[in-house]
Amino acid sequence: MPESVIVSHTLELDFPDDLVENARNIGEDSDRVCELMQQFKDLIFEKGDCNPHRMDDEFLIRFLRARFWKVENAYKLLSRYTHFRGNNMHWIDKVHPLSLEVLGEEDIMTITPYLDQTKKRMMIFRFGNWKPSKIPVDELFKATLICLEVGIMEPRAQVNGGVGIFDMEGFGLNHTLHMSPTIAQKMIAMMVTSFPYRTTAIHIVNQGWFFDVAFAFFKPFLNDAMRSKLYLHGTNYKSLHKHIDPSNLPKRYGGVMEDYSYKPWIDHAKANKRVIKELELHGYCTDEFYNTAE
Question: Which residues are paired to 167 by β-bridges?
């Protein structure tokens, strides 16, 4: 493992000193944060057509950072987020986060406990490991949403954004039959258009013919900006390395890092009172966390 790559299963919840310059580059001015935050809140009240479930600064600043401190654009994102959340409360209401550990156990998804060379967090999906007969597609959405809601607590994620790697090895007919335009639209909304998390790139690896069939559901919902963030590599990992340095990738993708389960993230989350409080504010059931919280 390269000495320069730090592995940590702990969320970095406080604003790190090395993030100041990046924050400034996306329009964050410490002298105007309070002013722009108040403008944002005033706009929410003035418009009156968006009723977010939270109005605290810690929550709203995510939308301002995601839209480079442009208040009007942040409001549009908040409106899409609120609409998306309202239409999909069954992914949140009465959902127990620990019940979704099976997705990590099945190696369907994980969050790397290290960053890429540009200090972005990476989320890896291995869709070929998904067994639709065992895990309904709604469970994938629930787990992804929780990971995003918790992950965006990190100021580094709010400022730098993140990267997705979709590994399609083993993705076949059975998976394709569970795809639909509705699922495609919701996945794009969650990963790109309706969440205060800037996905700066999605890298598709090991894709085959069935991916092309499934991707046809997504194409109508992709605009030029979205397409520009999508990279198809197949098994050409050298192509992937042009975007993510091998020292920041698992060995299976031509890198040097080990594979990591997301179970340590769950263990950290259920022992962290700030994470538990965040999940509660979003409406999740967290009773089972209190036996281990510190």
Answer: 126, 205
